[in-house]
Amino acid sequence: MSQSLADSELSPPRAVPAETGPNPTRVLVAIALAAVMLPISVTGPGVALADMSGALNASAASTQWVLNAYNVAFTAFMLAAGSAADLFGRRRLFRSGTAVFALASLVAGTAPTILLVDLARFVQGMGAAAVLTSGSALLAHTFSGAARARAFGIFGASIGFGLAMGPFVSGLLVGVASWHAVFLVNVVLGAVVLVLARTLPESKNPGARRIDLPGVLTFTLALMLLALGFVEGPSQGWGGIVTLGSFAGAALFLALFVVVELRVAEPMFDLSLLRRPTFVAIIWQPVSIVFAFAALLVYLPPYFQGAGGAGSTMSGAMLLPLTLPVFVLPLFTGTLVRLLSVRMLLALGPAVLAVALLLMTFTDPVSSRTGLYAALLLAGVGIGLAFGVMDNAAVSVVPAERSGMASGMFNTLRVAGETIGVACVGGLLLTSTRQQLSAGDGAMADDVVQGRLGSVRASGGEDLVDRAVQGLQHGWGVVYVVLACVALAGAIAIFTMVRDRDLDQSSTAQEG
């Protein structure tokens, strides 16, 4: 009995019978490989920034946009890409997006100036948006029932693997070759995906006849300005003209977007979908997860290296209790769904994450490493539970012809959560650390948050280092509590708003 269950869990999902007979394994491999490739481009390049900055004689601000340009474009173009997939065809957009992503990676990896790298990263983010939205819509079209749950479990595991292994793989590439390899590896992966994608099944929304250009422009500008505001807030100041102007512009274009969508015959996003509480809760669910996950991946390594005294390799290893469950658990989504309902898994993930984050307030990377590892493992379990089911749920609660649109909105909020989470947590960590230290210690707070304790030690000795570390630990305590509140709010929203009958009816309709 147990052997049969394991075999069914690990075997490739079976596709919906179709006249064209697409190979389900080929579909799954192509989309899973793309799902690994995209998040590596989110978390990986940070490892190469120091080498890149020195080689290209770039300023700290322009080098930081290597990360920000990708994240802003990835966020802003997600919904537009979903609508384009419904209109022009999901396979066509998947292949086009992969080609754009690979070519932009080639430019970034060979660029002679940091400005060209930044521009290539922006284009790379646009290609990534097309790949992610069309890829998840293709999975929804190809698989159904329990097979779909397993396919999306593998999809979620692939995203988790890419997020988790991005810094580690990039570190190896920089050490063995150079910073160029971090980008050039995506050229190879993109070429493999394009070969596999030649026989993917095509699907589109038969009722879609044109692109909602006013909707695309207003929404894309709104998301771009919103992401820009959160990215620039920590460095320019939350009350600065750039930050406030970005937020004001985002609000204006978002209001214009709503007006446009209510008036056009074929809107980019059908606002009537927001009348479904289940859909609203599910598309917001990833924010409660990735808001914390992305921020922990970015800011814990400097914390371990500085306050914890770990080397770069050790700091990556210390993240394994957090990252491994995110890769492993989605592989067993089929079994988990049979044991617990989709609604329970969606709510349980952020709830477990919230508990883990609160437990982390009692730990530090020096005196309580065992407790820290246990809390990180629990956080990884919560994130992994959610990653296995949330993509499938997002495209399952809407009609099949709207799957690209639903995927676009879901992934827009997922990537926006990552971008905004990283920006907000960076600002909160720095602000709360500064408040704990004496007035005028802003430079010291900057150094300790980024793990540069050597500068602190040189200016004041071990006593100053101890005080700086205590301030940083206070800052992390504030961050853990805030992230726990965000996760808990997501769990409550899912549990109270998601209706099991909506998910059940969707599954029945898909199987039929």
Automatic annotation (TrEMBL):
Location (main, coarse): membrane
The superkingdom listed in its UniProt entry is Bacteria
Q: How does it sit in the membrane?
A: Multi-pass membrane protein
Pfam families, per database record: MFS_1
Q: Where are its TM segments located?
A: 27-49, 69-88, 100-117, 123-140, 152-173, 179-199, 211-231, 237-259, 279-300, 312-332, 344-362, 374-400, 477-498
Keyword Nucleotidyltransferase (UniProt): no
What keywords does the record list, in alphabetical order?
A: Antibiotic resistance, Membrane, Transmembrane, Transmembrane helix
Q: What is this protein called?
A: MFS transporter
Q: What is the lineage of its organism?
A: Bacteria, Bacillati, Actinomycetota, Actinomycetes, Kitasatosporales
